[in-house]
Each structure stands twice: as structure tokens, then as C-alpha cells.
DNA sequence: ACTGAAAGACACAGACT
DNA sequence: AGTCTGTGTCTTTCAGT
């Protein structure tokens, strides 16, 4: 069935996406629940090739996940904070420990290794300022090897999209 | 915390979510394509109440959107940059103009109004450094009223989730 | 690679407890 | 609010072009 083993598919494009693949991705990015029939009619194809193309993009990891987005404020996570972290020591072991801890903190929804004066950038969500203060003082600050910490508060969301393919 | 407009109900929870609603949200956040039957069996309910609860959460805006996530590198958007922007003037009109322009730039996938020395934080994706340089010089810098600009490069993704409800 | 048809799984609505 | 049952629509497979 499959030509290549999809084990080591972490970096490079698995194959060249043609215009029809990109059209499918454009539609799926906006609405994960669009029907195969609907896609098929919009790109002037029958369901079978559309279904096969989606399957191929799922198997090759181009399509990573279908997720449901929830309204921040309505689930009581109205406060968003960008948090900068630098560690005291920069050896492999302490870095790995930090990463493990971050992955266990559900308030942290994103974490990036960044260039510049800080080591990491975190996106944190909390119900309100009290909850964030508690998180900052009792969880973040308590991480071993923690160096400097700086919080930048998000006052408004101007744009938020997951549309990588345009 | 987000500002409220008088005409929309964007801020407050529409109603109290019970444990079953939260259980449904937890499953949907991880997989938008999970079947109602599957959810029903996992939370020990039949399909009808699950279906009704999902519908209610969609209608009230708690569930915002079902999206498909695509692998950055595999669609040739391997470079992620955090970009800080300050405007020269801070009147309402120039702010609105900036927001309009940002929404038209498909390289910008997120934009927040932030506290601190800069006005906005942008998350930008590009194929490579050449593409980002072109975006920076020919698009971002050319925006009228543009003040200071600072780029922070993402060297590694430690954590990325959309799981707001835990 | 694609079309068209056909089987099985599913969402969704109705009658009822 | 919930279960059970039925109907129409969908995904998914298969034979054929």
C-alpha cells in the first residue's frame, strides 16, 4: 500500500502538494467538519479522490489534528499573559526538567524557545488576575533553576487564525 | 480581560457548564471529529443529550470553531517569528488602519494588543529567513504610522495546545 | 486518477419515560 | 433531562473507465 515508511517525517514536506490538495487544506483549516461531498463539489471532483487525498495528508502528517476551539472568556479563561523566562543554568539536564514541568502546567498553552535575552516565551491563560498571580508566585516562580521572569499582559486580541495555507 | 461591546455577548459565560459539558469539551478539543456516539459511550449517556449539549454550546458561542491543524514545516512555513510593534501615533484612526492592514497580511497568524513598551505583538510564519526578511522590509515596515519594530525568533516549539478546558 | 454506485456508519429528529 | 427508534445523509469501499 504505502511507498515510504512515515516514521521519520518530522521535517521535510512528505510530497509536493498540488493545487487540489491546497484547496482541500484551505477548506479544512476553516472548518474541520466540512463534508467530503461539500469539498468535492467546491473543487469539482467526486468524493473518492477527495477522500483519498485527505487520507494521504493525514497519514503523511501534513494534517496534524482536528481540534475544537473554545471561547476563552466563556470558559473562564479570559486573561491571557505572555510570560518571559530565563533559566539560571543552561545545561541539557535543567532544560529538560523545565520543559517537563511546563508540559504539566495546564495554564501554559504555548511555550517556545526563543532568541534574545530570555530563553523561553510562554502563553498563559487564567480566569483572572488573582488566578494568574497565584500561578506566577506559586507555580512558575517555584520551578527549580528559574532565573528572570517577566509578564506582558494581553489587552486585546486583534487577530487569531490557524490558516497556515492560503 | 477583553472589553465588552454593548451589542454582543462576548464576555460572560452564557450559562454554567456542568461536568458533562466539560467532559464533552475535553474530548472535542482533542479531536473535533470524534463521533457523538463515541462521546456518549465515554461519558455514559445516549447520543441525544450529547447532541443537544453540543448544539447548545455551539449556539451560545462556547464552541467557536472546528479547525484543522496543519504541520508548519510540511507546508513550507517552518520559520516562526514573534514581532513587536509600536506605532508613532496612538489615536483611534491610525490604530484602526493598522488593524485592518494586519488582518490582510496572511503571514501574520496572531496579533495582540499588549501592555509594556510596545503596542502590539505579532506571531508571523514564513517559509524561511529570506521570505521573512522580505515580509519585514517590504510589508511590515511600510505600514503607515509604523514606529519601532523588533523581531524575536522562535528556535523551538516546546508546547502548543488548544486545550483551554482541562 | 478519476467516476458512479452501493454498503454501512452516522447525525439528527420524533415519540416516549 | 434522559432512553430508544427510525430516517435521511454521510463516509468509505469497490467495480469500472
Automatic annotation (TrEMBL), chains A, B:
One of its GO terms (biological process) is regulation of DNA-templated transcription. Signal peptide: none annotated. One of its GO terms (cellular component) is cytosol. The keyword Transferase does not apply. Pfam families: AsnC_trans_reg, HTH_24. Keywords: DNA-binding, Transcription, Transcription regulation. One of its GO terms (molecular function) is sequence-specific DNA binding. InterPro entries: ArsR-like_HTH, AsnC-type_HTH_dom, Dimeric_a/b-barrel, Tscrpt_reg_AsnC-like, Tscrpt_reg_AsnC/Lrp_C, WH-like_DNA-bd_sf, WH_DNA-bd_sf. Residues 17-80 form the HTH asnC-type domain. This is Lrp/AsnC family transcriptional regulator.
Amino acid at each position: 500500500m504505502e511507498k515510504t515508511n512515515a516514521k521519520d517525517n518530522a521535517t521535510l514536506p512528505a510530497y509536493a502538494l498540488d493545487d487540489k490538495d491546497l484547496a482541500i487544506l484551505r477548506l479544512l483549516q476553516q472548518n474541520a467538519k466540512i463534508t467530503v461531498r461539500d469539498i468535492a463539489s467546491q473543487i469539482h471532483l467526486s468524493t473518492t479522490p477527495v477522500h483519498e487525498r485527505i487520507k494521504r495528508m493525514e497519514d503523511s502528517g501534513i494534517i496534524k489534528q482536528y481540534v475544537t476551539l473554545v471561547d476563552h472568556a466563556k470558559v473562564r479563561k479570559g486573561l491571557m499573559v505572555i510570560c518571559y523566562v530565563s533559566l539560571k543554568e543552561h545545561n541539557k539536564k535543567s532544560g529538560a526538567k523545565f520543559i517537563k514541568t511546563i508540559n504539566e502546567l495546564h495554564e501554559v498553552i504555548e511555550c517556545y524557545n526563543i532568541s534574545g535575552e530570555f530563553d523561553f516565551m510562554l502563553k498563559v491563560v487564567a480566569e483572572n488576575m488573582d488566578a494568574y498571580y497565584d500561578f506566577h508566585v506559586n507555580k512558575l516562580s517555584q520551578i527549580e533553576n528559574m532565573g528572570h521572569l517577566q509578564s506582558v499582559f494581553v489587552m486585546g486580541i486583534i487577530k487569531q487564525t490557524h490558516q497556515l495555507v492560503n
